[in-house]
Amino acid sequence: MAGQRYGFTANSVTSVSMDPPLISVCLADTADVHPAFSQAESVAVNVLAADQHAVAQAFATVGADRFAAAHFSPGELGPPLLDGATVSLEGVVHQRLTAGDHTIILIEVAGVVVGGGEPLTYQGRRFHTLNPL
């Protein structure tokens, strides 16, 4: 698995702690990328921009050539950062916790790249953007 890139579309990324800066991502134990993320030491979380719904779809599709959907650049720790993302977070795996049929991956954020723009959201089985009330 060394030297290969793996990714998935997360349905939830949560802020956990400010000191140290921790976020969490949940991954189904049945996910095709679970073995890779069970061993990864560093990871990236890319918050997709409003025009990147095809990237979200590709990374949610089993068997898809996920990294062909967009251009990525290696981060300082090595994980791929999505060009044009609203924000990319890079960090080291702090801890993994088993929770039912998922693994909670706690990530200590070591770097942030802010791209700007409006983020892509997903609700009710549809992609959306944020609109002011």
From TrEMBL:
Record's keyword annotation contains Oxidoreductase: yes
Transmembrane parts of this sequence: none
Pfam families hit by this protein: Flavin_Reduct (PF01613)
Keyword hit for Oxidoreductase: yes
Molecular function, one GO term: FMN binding
One GO term of the biological process aspect: pyrimidine nucleobase catabolic process
InterPro entries: Flavin_Rdtase-like_dom, NADH-dep_flavin_reductase, Split_barrel_FMN-bd
Keyword line: Oxidoreductase
Domain Flavin reductase like: 1-129
Top-level taxonomic group: Bacteria
PANTHER family, per the entry: FLAVIN REDUCTASE, FMN REDUCTASE (NADH) RUTF
The protein's name in its UniProt record: Putative Actinorhodin polyketide dimerase
Originating organism: Streptomyces afghaniensis 772
